[in-house]
Design goal:
Elements lengths: L12 H4 L8 H15 L8 H17 L2 H10 L9 H12 L15 H11 L1
Amino acid sequence: MDSNLNPPTYKDYYKILQLDYDATDHNIRLNYRKLALKWHPDKHKGDAAATSIFQEINEAYSVLSDPDKRLEYDLNGNYEIDNYTLPEYLSRFKGMILTCNGLGMSQTSKWSQPLMELNDLKEN
């Protein structure tokens, strides 16, 4: 069987919780609570679609609220560029491409040292 016939489907947990890709823990909790209350099955008796949405919200929250799971998701999740607008794409990768720590480098790496020396010269 050709695996291209049934490609895996990926869920964008940030979109499910209506969050920016650099959302804080506080914002994750707030949006989760708001959406969980809105889509709770008790408010939509017998509506299978609402129950499904509620389950997706819980799944997204269980990943994004756990720092280890969130890091794993951010590093290995679905990054199909065609699914995102440019601001969404840049926001999603901001932590990895715009900070030294995102690249696994210490703050005082050999790349930042010349900049620090230049700043010291300017101050004197």
